[in-house]
Amino acid sequence: MNTAAAFADFRTYPLISALTAVHTLADRIQVKWADDRVSPFHHQWLRDNCPCPMCVYTVTREQVLEIVDVAENLKPSDVSVDAEGCLRVDWQDGHLSRFDPGWLRAHAYDDESRAERRASKPKSLLWNSNLTLPVFDYQVLMNDNDALLQWLLAVRDTGLTQVRGVPTEPGSLKLIAQRISFIRESNFGVLFNVQSKADADSNAYTAFNLPLHSDLPTRELQPGLQFLHCLVNDAEGGESIFVDGFAIAEALRDEDPEAFKSLCEIPVEFRNKDRHSDYRCLAPIIALDAFGQVSEIRMANFLRGPFDTSVEQMPALYHAYRRFIAMTREARFRVMTRLNPGEMWCFDNRRTLHARNAFDPATGARHFQGCYVDRDELLSRILVLQR
Ligand code: OGA
Ligand code: ZN
Ligand code: ZN
Fold it and tell me: Does the Cβ of 240 fall within 6 Å of ligand 1?
């Protein structure tokens, strides 16, 4: 009797439907569930995913088996549903595998199960100028994991949030960013100070307006989340502006498909250089995922190098680039708010473009602090909080 866990994960898998029958075909088995769904599983797939302690190290729950070490045509000698409701497979070479029905259902790859999984994936909630801004309270987020989860889901799905009640001591944003996970350091520091400085190493550290942009488009991986915390805001001007880059990209796909295609296909170089560093990244402005969905926007006019594309494509690239920027200036997409001391933006830097109006340093001080956390950290924290 194999008493080992019938799945090897740190998550739990609810029993959605019980296994009622199983039969063997030439290269797969087919199970039937209590709700009448039928799911095939290839012999190789089952052997590959055997959760027994010989195939998966129980401490790490990571696989030690490599499927190439098993005969390609290995077949079961017997398959059954055991007394605990697990799928039991006795293999011709003597190995035994047991699969928990909750785990098996969660990984079934019949068309219906896959469509169901795709439909339940989190989707970006696109927004425009009439966004209802998700607002959270610092103290509550610091003390309550349920509130933390709600905040993180809003960051993931809406891509723009505000936190209020953040202490205005410098460095305070570090504590709230670390409620999520590791801060991503850059050449601008673990935390960066957004202040007008005489020896600025970025237009961000002047009093100029900053057009709608993502931060660090000059890196192969743009930071996932950006935090901007207001410590002092006495200067006239300097309002924050945001657009949903995914919403603009989708509108462009609709309204000017050729321009959309150019921005998806023609790489553009972004550069960030100072006396000590020289970062460059060559990539298209709009990235699509494997399903053709917009997954990332890379844009900062002030960090862009000269376009380098074929003579034939150059006019198309300029047309597309101008069209995209023109759209970021359209009122239908824009949200504008002045950030007050103790307030903090947290947004998806690879989706939501941010800008600030010019401010007048002669009218008062302005001091923001910022930092980055990668998207992986956000998604992992959400999954752990949901366990
Ligand atoms: C930045 C930036 C916004 C602001 O530093 O990259 O976008 O409001 N700052 O100063
Ligand atoms: Zn095994
Ligand atoms: Zn910025």
Answer: yes
